[in-house]
Amino acid sequence: MHFIPEPLIVTCDSCGKSAETYNGADPDAAVECGCCPEQHSHAGLGCRTVTIQAKARLTIFDIGDLLDYVQARMPEEEAAPCGNV
To answer: Considering the entire predicted model, what is its pTM?
Structure first.
């Protein structure tokens, strides 16, 4: 299974301005608008609220593909069957 994240969409609840960011630690800093009296990188203390939407894409594949993937990345000594070293 492949997990492909997409950027977070951050929207100001007051004016509706939005922005995209991959910064999950401080997503509200992505939106710069006049609704907050200072640069909005202060963890939402005493200022406007935002709505954050997240999306990701998952790709499912066959179990045989997974086993082939693991086998190809294992060191040779780990891939050898027991007793055949």
So the answer is: 0.58
Q: What is the dihedral of CA 28, 32, 35, 41, to 10 degrees?
A: 40
Q: For each of the chain's 85 residues, which pLDDT tens digit applies?
A: 666 778 999 998 889 999 999 988 888 888 888 887 666 555 555 577 889 998 877 777 777 877 887 888 876 555 555 555 4
- Give the number of other CB atoms < 10 A from CB of residue 15: 13
| Domain spans in the chain, listed from the N-terminal domain onward | 2-78
Long-range CB contacts (< 8 A, 24+ apart) of 77-80? none
